[in-house]
Write a structure and sequence with these properties.
Elements (H helix, E strand, L loop, with lengths): L8 H23 L7 H14 L12 H13 L7 H34 L6 H19 L7 H16 L6 H18 L5 H9 L1
Helix pairs in contact: 1-4, 1-5, 2-3, 3-4, 4-5, 4-6, 6-7
Length: 205
Amino acid sequence: MNDPASLPPTRRRARIGFAFATLAAGLIDVVVNPASINPDGVAYIEVGRAILAGHREGIVGYWSPLYATIVAAVLALFRATPATEVLIARSVNVLFFLIAALAFESLVTAVLTLLRATGPVANELLWRIPAYAVFLWTCVRNIGIAEITPDLGVAAATFAATAMVLDDAVGTPARRALWLGLTLGVGYLDKAVRSEEHTSELQSH
């Protein structure tokens, strides 16, 4: 991102407003029903604990190894109790939500840069405000920050990877390919890989 001091006032104000809206949305979604947890969330926590304990059965084809390990590591770091583990696990998603917001901001900036290459952009706010609104609606309403799932991490990786593809200023082609590959790899490991064989095995039990 550009140096904030060198940004046009409208872009700076838009980014500040987006940052406040993102933080507020994340906190509100987490504190509502703080003790509830989705069924997949329980599985991710248990899988992560198994991986951290060195149990090979924690590595399965159905549950995301990276996300589960991150959640379990944070729970262990803060010594979560049964009364606090749900709130701490949700806090991990708030972090992923903020990372997704940064990646989305990079994507919006990359798109506007491409538009300027074809002609002047009269008012950035007409592009940024609807884009920010769609981001917040999608992450809060459709994905759910309070849901203990890896979807926000996948969204962050997708936004970041798309921004890299569109932005020629990331670096040399080799360096950009390296970062793109790492970003896509993290997004892949962050999401459950649902193999048909393992799904059939689960259904048979």
